[in-house]
Design goal:
Layout lengths: L1 H14 L15 E7 L2 H15 L3 E7 H6 L2 H5 L1 H11 L4 E3 L2 H9 L7 H6 L9 H10 L10 E3 L1 E6 H7 L10 H14 L6 E4 L5 H11 L17 H15 L6 H7 L10 E7 H6 L8 E4 L14 E3 L2 E3 L6 H11 L2 H7 L6 E2 L9 H4 L18 H19 L5 H17 L4
Parallel strand pairs: 1-2, 1-3, 6-7
Antiparallel strand pairs: 3-10, 4-9, 4-11, 5-7, 5-8
């Protein structure tokens, strides 16, 4: 067993030369780092275990955020503040977080700025993909407080045969949303008898799909302070009507359609002309088959915005009250090294943040061709139970609009009134 472990260590050291691997170090001895992670198993498998193979003397304890929160109902209802308190009350060195959570920790002065550490160690940040650097900068209010070795983004995949048979020009990179809808509507109308739809969206529920439109137009359900609903506006009326049309005209493939036809709601069953899916879903579904499918960069709404953002994976930062800043930075450097990226990119259905080792093909490049349009749609001051209740009302009203039972104006008026009532009512 010792020989096997040594062999693995040598292998990782050989591959991860760019991470400054050292199998033994006096500085490593008797060091214990505490890491906070939402999914401890995923973090351990992808990042911690490889690090410990080449740093066997560093002990790493992982606190599972979900497990801690699930034991307290108050924490379940307010996970953001629960995370903040957990960090303040425990000697945590490194936190693996989502992007918006990173922003929250920055605002609470709970993270160490990484720019000085990167400059000090000549950490190569230049070959990071522009969209990743921009997203990290946005989350950190112009500074770097976390690094992420991988990310996931969306693209527009299309069925080449359907477009060829109908003699319709396939979608191009960043064409307008209106042009895309016209093509999707043409497919749905001409192939209606065959049960083929023009477009599939990443979210199955119409109200979830509405988020693409509100995101691109920087619209929120509530004001920043979380005290007032702001949906009964001309901008909301426009996007609400756009989404209702997509479903009422049967342009978009829905779970209800799939249930009636006895098929799964997936682009791969040749029942959809185009689909907006994330890279992982496309690769895992075998939709990167260049013979059958093509891919284009996402369509633009107004102001060159896609309406969907990238998701950073392995995003981690150093907690400001850590007593092991140097060792914590060493862990983050390792996770974000070229060596780790080269190895992990072979078995993770994700895109590497390091553009210099991205897959060299036209297909993958479409997912790097992205314009980051980040805004924090919902206030962190609104209780998650309230947001869920408000969303449920919105979903029902949007479905009624799609069915023609109420108008867009009636729906938004009722949505704002009922949502406001929830906002001002205390949760028992």
């Amino acid at each position: 067993m010792k020989n096997i472990a040594l062999g693995l260590t040598v292998l990782f050291c050989t591959v991860f030369l760019t991470s400054g691997c050292q199998t033994t170090s006096k500085e490593d001895k008797n060091i214990q780092l505490t890491v906070l992670a939402e999914d401890s198993q995923q973090v351990r498998q992808n990042w911690i275990e490889p690090y410990q193979l080449v740093h066997p003397n560093v002990k790493i304890n992982i606190l599972d955020l979900n497990t801690i929160i699930s034991k307290d109902e108050k924490k379940i209802n307010d996970p953001i503040n629960a995370m903040i308190n957990i960090i303040k009350e425990n000697p945590i060195d490194v936190a693996f977080v989502r992007g918006p959570e990173l922003t929250t920790l920055v605002n609470e002065n709970l993270l160490v700025e990484l720019d000085p550490l990167m400059k000090q160690d000549n950490f190569d940040f230049n070959n990071y993909a522009d969209i990743v650097k921009t997203m990290i900068s946005v989350y950190g209010d112009g500074k770097t407080y976390g690094l992420a070795p991988f990310f996931n983004s969306f693209g527009l995949v299309y069925n080449k045969k359907i477009f060829s048979d109908l003699n319709i020009d396939p979608p191009s990179d960043h064409e307008s949303w209106d042009d895309l809808v016209q093509k999707a509507e043409a497919i749905s109308k001409r192939l209606e008898t065959e049960g083929i739809y023009g477009l599939d969206l990443p979210q199955p529920d119409p109200f979830d799909a509405l988020g693409i439109f509100t995101y691109a137009n920087e619209l929120s359900l509530v004001q920043g302070d979380g005290n007032k609903m702001v949906v009964n506006t001309p901008s909301w009326k426009k996007v609400w009507g756009q989404v209702a049309d997509l479903y009422s005209k049967k342009i978009v493939f829905t779970p209800m359609v799939a249930k009636k036809q006895g098929i799964s709601p997936n682009f791969g069953n040749n029942k959809v002309g185009m689909a907006i899916y994330d890279y992982s879903r496309i690769v895992q579904g075998g939709l990167n088959n260049k013979d059958d499918y093509g891919v284009a960069s996402l369509p633009y709404f107004s102001d060159n915005k896609e309406g969907l953002n990238i998701t950073l994976f392995g995003l981690s930062g150093i907690i400001s009250n850590s007593t092991h800043i140097k060792e914590s930075w060493d862990l983050i450097k390792f996770i974000n090294s070229e060596g780790v990226a080269k190895v992990k990119s072979q078995n993770l259905p994700l895109l590497t943040s390091r553009s210099n080792i991205m897959r060299d093909d036209d297909f993958s490049s479409k997912f790097y061709d992205y314009k980051v349009t980040y805004n924090q749609r919902e206030s962190i001051h609104v209780d998650t139970i309230k947001i869920s209740k408000i969303a449920a009302i919105g979903s029902e009203l949007l479905n009624q609009t799609i069915q023609g039972r109420i108008t867009t104006e009636e729906a938004l008026k009722e949505f704002e009134e009922k949502g406001q009532e929830i906002l001002v009512t205390s949760i028992k």
